[in-house]
Amino acid sequence: MIEERYNELIRQIAAAIATSTEELTADIEAEFAKLPTMLQKEPGINSFIPWYRWTEKKQDGSERATKIPCSPSGSLSDVWREIPAKKENTVHFIQAYLYSRLLNGTRPEIIHREGQTAGRRTAAEGGGYGVVFSNSGLAGIDIDHCINDDGELSRNALDLIYSLDSYAEYSPSGKGIHILVALSAPDGMKLNKNKLTARKLLEEHGDNFEPEFPEQEIEFYTDGRYFTFTGNHLTDTPDDISAPGTMEVLDSLGFAFIPKDGATATERERTAATALDTMQ
């Protein structure tokens, strides 16, 4: 499974994190096996990115973990470089996994971000890898704060999970769900919005607001974003990524494809018809 061109990188990172190349190679193969089949086989969409998690202390003393996408540029010392989550900045799964292991095993005291003072930053909690959405056939739905302390899922989460009928997994926090679907925005179209906050759920979709999950938020992306990947598969959901069985739940939450800015009237009519066909 592992091509020879990665042998030197495996050797370097094994030395950096004080493990054997054999053990690291076995770990790669085990993590690869967790990927849905679509991500193992489809070269057009299997774009990965390593990420590093740091904790920011706010003025009120609370902490919020933020995941910074990182991209290797051939030098281990440059692995902390921040990049947008775009397909051209992504790497093969093996590279993303290896650099995530390096990020976990090497913890810099401070990761500096432009425009923010280093004094507000604490050292990190490790890293991981994720999948990137670049309108190439892969999209993601992120449901935050949808699992209570008893492990029960919200009604919104259950509706989306069973309606979309595709691969789903727990987020790194264990309090959210990521659903991956085989979907792109039609040509000339984009999503009308990407995020439905708890406040918007209450104000615009009152029937979907669940008081027992007051911080629940729903996000939907086809482009320009990445999701962390945990491999912590949600039981009773498909092992692979599939096209949505229905878009009705997302439609009921106000998500829709609309023409991109600058589209002509003819383009709007054509792309609207394409979007309708896609969602049926």
Describe, in plain words, how this protein is organized in 3D:
The chain has helices spanning 7-16, 21-34, 37-41, 93-105, 155-164, 198-204, 248-252, 265-279; strands at residues 48-57, 63-69, 121-122, 127-134, 139-144, 168-170, 177-181, 189-191, 195-196, 217-221, 223-229, 257-259. The protein has 280 residues and is of the alpha+beta class. A hairpin with a 6-residue loop joins strand 6 and strand 7. It is globular, with a radius of gyration of 20 Å. The two termini are 38 Å apart. Residues 107-123 and 264-280 have low confidence and may be disordered.
Oligomer: single chain
What class do helices, strands and sheet pairing give? alpha+beta
Distance between the termini: 38 Å
Tell me what portion of residues adopts beta-strand conformation: 15-25%
Helix content: 25-40%
Mean pLDDT: 80
Number of helices: 8
Radius of gyration from the alpha-carbon trace, in angstroms: 20 Å
Task: Sketch the major β-sheet.
Answer: 5 strands, antiparallel
List low-confidence stretches: 107-123, 264-280
**Global outline:** globular
Instruction: Summarize the helix and strand pattern as letters.
Output: HHHEEHEEEHEEEEHEEHEH
Total strands: 12
Descriptive labels:
280 residues; five-stranded antiparallel β-sheet; alpha+beta; 8 helices; 12 strands; disordered C terminus; globular
Task: Report a brief summary of the structure.
A hairpin with a 5-residue loop joins β1 and β2.
